[in-house]
Amino acid sequence: MLKKKNPRYIRKIRIRKKVIGTVERPRLCVFRSTKHISAQAIDDSSGKTLASVSTVDKKLKIEGAGNKKGAEKIGELIAEKLREKGINKVVFDRNGYIYHGRVQALAEGARKQGLIF
Asked: What is the CA angle 97-12-2, rounded to 5?
């Protein structure tokens, strides 16, 4: 059960008040677990997911899915999917996680492929 005093939950709520995605500039939301990481681009005005990539997907077969290399690969793949749809700019939503480690690697991988945020 999620407690209201959970520090990550409090950070998440505080960040979500400020970060809003649109069609032109969707919200790039990151979720990480102990073994996997996923990212999705969300248009908050219509409530639709424009693109998503995860290490759970068996089609990708990423080596070291739960480490920084896997996170960087996920960042590159989400950037490629968004560029195919004509989206170059996003708003980065770290989802309450500290910008360090796998979250930072995902962001750097997306920037390496030309995504601007």
From this structure: 95
CATH 3.30.420.100 describes domain 7-112: yes
How buried is residue 13: exposed, middle or buried, by Cβ count under 10 Å (0-12/13-18/19+)? Answer: exposed
Q: What are the residue boundaries of the structural domains of the chain, listed by start?
A: 7-112
Give 46-68 pLDDT, tens digit per residue.
Answer: 999 999 999 998 887 777 778 99
| pTM > 0.70 | yes
The answer to whether 44 and 28 are in contact (CB under 8 A) is no
Is 81 within 8 Å of 57 (Cβ atoms)? no
